[in-house]
């Protein structure tokens, strides 16, 4: 068993998830990859064709689409919410900028279970519009899924195109990611890995978005909703190691992945999380300029530009319940092993 497979197998033995897939590689593709376990605890063995719910790893993919729109002049990082969304012009979010939404410094609270009281798309979006700010914009890093919901609306307003179409046209199609999309079809759902036995929905969620707010929005949101395969995540990882090739110009990509919030005590790039000194989800094995994102379902993508390496970890850690924090130790052990593999391998 490889050093990368060991923490993955241990995670299943500890019932952190029923299944996991991983890949570590560079601009030319994977150096080490594999899968372990089953699609659900009583389901079939993973065969490599699985669809995984990315959860919040959706955010940086949407962020790539937004930055592509910035390159094209459809909007700017200083464009405001009020500029692009008329319904926001008289509220407390009118002057928030695209940059603040991307860096989670807008002051919009996150992780708010709006779905409980707002069961339709229209009512949930109105609740987002009226959600009071809990910090003065630009003064605090405050993770906000609601901010990325608004970011998705901005991208749509700037182009007149649906968000899922934009993500496909600007990110997935250029990179050849043909198995990455919102709202899987019935045929695709048959390949999906199970997530939570959801008390709110009353059934085991498989092939439909796990995030409840995204579910109310119809499965497409700036914050969650993308499904993908390990193969497609390898394509994305390789593109990121290659400075965003195929999606962004090098200078735009450098701006996107640079640290923008160090003065606020936490390191955030544009739609990406930097490696914080304390509390990084991947530990300290990856370099100080590394960046990535994690997803609540147990997914992650992390890139170390100095080592020219990416690390992808896909799990269903919310199956059958979201209780438990075992994924924290698994992630750190996996990324420690991934960094050691990179150190032994020539840079790509």
Task: Write up what this structure looks like.
- The protein has 348 residues and is an alpha+beta fold.
- The protein has a domain at 5-57 and 180-249 and 273-344: Beta-lactamase (3-Layer(aba) Sandwich).
- Helices cover 34% and strands 14% of the residues.
- It contains 12 helices and 10 strands.
- It has helices at residues 5-13, 58-72, 81-84, 98-102, 121-130, 145-159, 163-175, 186-189, 212-216, 230-241, 250-257, 326-344; strands spanning 19-26, 29-37, 52-53, 194-198, 203-206, 227-228, 273-274, 291-295, 299-304, 309-315.
- It has a 6-stranded antiparallel β-sheet with strand order 2-1-10-9-8-7, sandwiched between helices. The chain has a two-stranded antiparallel ribbon with strand order 3-6.
- A hairpin with a 3-residue loop joins strand 8 (291-295) and strand 9.
- Helix 2 (58-72) crosses helix 7 (163-175).
- Residues 8-327 form the Beta-lactamase-related domain.
- InterPro entries: Beta-lactam-related, Beta-lactam/transpept-like, Diverse_Enzym_Activities.
- It holds the Pfam family Beta-lactamase.
- It comes from Streptomyces spiralis.
- One of its GO terms (molecular function) is hydrolase activity.
């Amino acid at each position: 068993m490889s050093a990368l497979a060991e923490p993955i197998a241990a995670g299943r033995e500890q019932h952190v998830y029923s299944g996991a897939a991983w890949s570590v590689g560079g601009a030319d593709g994977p150096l080490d990859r594999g899968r372990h376990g089953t699609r659900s605890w009583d389901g079939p063995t993973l065969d490599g064709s699985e669809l995984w719910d990315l959860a919040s790893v959706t955010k940086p993919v949407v962020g790539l689409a937004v930055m592509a729109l910035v390159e094209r002049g459809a909007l700017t990082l200083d464009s405001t919410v009020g500029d692009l969304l008329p319904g926001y012009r008289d509220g407390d979010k009118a002057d928030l900028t695209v940059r603040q939404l991307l860096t989670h410094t807008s002051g919009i609270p996150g992780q708010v279970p709006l779905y409980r009281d707002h069961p339709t798309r229209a009512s949930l979006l109105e609740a987002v519009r009226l959600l009071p700010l809990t910090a003065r914009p630009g003064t605090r890093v405050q993770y906000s899924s609601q901010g990325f919901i608004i970011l998705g609306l901005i991208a749509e307003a700037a182009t007149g195109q649906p968000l899922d179409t934009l993500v496909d046209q600007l990110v997935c199609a250029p990179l050849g990611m043909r198995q990455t999309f919102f709202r899987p079809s019935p045929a695709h759902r048959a390949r999906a890995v199970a997530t939570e036995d959801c008390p709110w929905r009353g059934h085991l969620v498989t092939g439909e978005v796990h995030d409840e707010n995204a579910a109310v929005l119809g499965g497409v949101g700036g914050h969650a909703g993308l499904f993908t395969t390990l193969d497609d995540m390898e394509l994305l990882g390789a593109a990121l190691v290659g400075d965003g090739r195929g999606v962004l110009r090098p200078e735009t990509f450098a701006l996107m992945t640079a640290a923008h919030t160090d003065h606020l005590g936490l390191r955030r790039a544009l739609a990406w999380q930097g490696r914080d000194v304390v509390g990084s989800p991947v530990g300290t094995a990856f370099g100080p300029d590394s960046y990535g994102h994690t997803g609540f379902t147990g997914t992650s993508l992390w890139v170390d530009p100095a080592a020219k390496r990416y690390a992808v970890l896909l799990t269903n850690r919310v199956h059958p319940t979201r209780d438990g924090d075992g994924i924290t130790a698994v992630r750190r052990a996996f990324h420690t092993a991934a960094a050691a593999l990179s150190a032994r391998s020539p840079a790509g």
